[in-house]
């Protein structure tokens, strides 16, 4: 898999694969999330990518990604809420 947005190969951890199954997040939805979701930086290389999907009953879907030579997707969350960043 490759992200046009980040110009990086995408790697999925075993953890994210298990969470995708449990939370009914398809590979297509995850790729859409990575390519079109809003981005919040946790640190220089760690980010949250999140998006509301109207067809889902939960709040927002969010994924935690570490971007280096490749983009490593660590987990996926549902019912995610955006918190204000501390100054």
Describe this entry's structure for a reader.
This protein is of the alpha+beta class. The chain has one domain (2-80): YaeB-like fold (2-Layer Sandwich). 22% of the residues lie in helices and 41% in strands. The chain contains 2 helices and 6 strands, in the order E-E-H-H-E-E-E-E. A hairpin with a 7-residue loop joins strand 4 (46-52) and strand 5 (60-67). The protein starts with a strand and ends in a 7-residue tail after the last strand.
Condensed summary:
With 87 residues, the protein is an alpha+beta fold. It has 2 helices and 6 strands.
Keywords, please?
87 residues, alpha+beta, YaeB-like fold, six-stranded mixed beta sheet, 2 helices, 22% helix, globular
Show unreliable segments.
none
Please name the CATH topology: YaeB-like fold
Topology order in helix (H) and strand (E) letters: EEHHEEEE
Strand content: 35-45%
Total separate domains? 1
Q: What is the CA-based Rg, rounded?
A: 12 Å
Q: Would you tell me the overall average pLDDT?
A: 94
The major beta sheet can be summarized as: 6 strands, mixed
Question: What share of the residues lie within helices?
Answer: 10-25%
Distance between the termini: 35 Å
The number of distinct β-strands equals: 6
Q: How many helical elements?
A: 2
What is the level-2 CATH architecture name?
A: 2-Layer Sandwich
Shape, please? Answer: globular
Which structural class should the secondary elements be placed in? alpha+beta
CATH C-level category: Alpha Beta
- The spatial strand order of the largest sheet comes to 1-2-6-5-4-3
